[in-house]
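Contributing new records

If you add data, match the layout below exactly. Sequence lines come first and carry their own label; structure lines follow with theirs. Keep one chain per record. Anything else will be rejected by the validation script.
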Amino acid sequence: MAEAPHSLGYPDAIVGAMADAVVASGRGRKRTLRVGISGLQGSGKSTLARQLEVVVEKRGLATTRFSLDDFYLTQGERLRLARGVHPLLATRGVPGTHDHAWLADTLDQLSSASMLRPVMIPRFDKQNNDRAEPDQWQTVTTPPDVILFEGWCVGVRAQTDAALIEPVNALERDEDGDGTWRLWVNAMLREHYEPIWRSFDVLIVLEAPSFDVVECWRGESEQKHREQGDANVMSGGELVRFIAHYERLSRHSLATLPDLADQLLRLDAERNVLAVQPTSGRPLSGP
């Protein structure tokens, strides 16, 4: 039986069991517990992270929550990449369009955060497609017991060179015919992102039924912004093109991340939880 969709929050029993597992792993540690939450666009990563933060803190562990999206390069930095490496890098999202060095340093520095050495976590303004002003950043002044970090490609490993040969969609076929963009992205993933993913202690994966649901899920977000009167809302065609940048690694993650997950939530097209399948560590209760 499917549980409530993520727009209403994940079921309390599931969140509570996952939080108990996090607390059991995090309590008494000398090093901050790093928990990664991965899932395709619109799968409910932020919702789950917020719910876990509340419950874990109620269990007595200080928690800091943030996103891979917070570390996007500025618009100017991405435009320089577009000129120097490949035009497709003007669009945020793929590995190489984040400040991965800043992210790695932030994860390390959080364990020694203090009033004298506060850690500043940036924020990205998606409506303006640029980094938010520093007065909107998160400031951490005490070391957290737990880091909850979510992102669409968290945990994803690089593909083989052979897997990069054939384009997966029209964007790659028409705008990356020689594979320069996807080869560069894959190299960035292997060299800079995989070491960060390996530093995490727990990987939670929200498994979509297929890549085909992403357009609908991501479109719901655009519709909410449209209803709120935001000016920079993507049209249907713009959204399809935007999602195409993510397609290769999204399909790769669907095929590979379940085997790497410590805790796996299988979702249907309505984002109901169909099953919770712990693959290691403390067993979780669920449907």
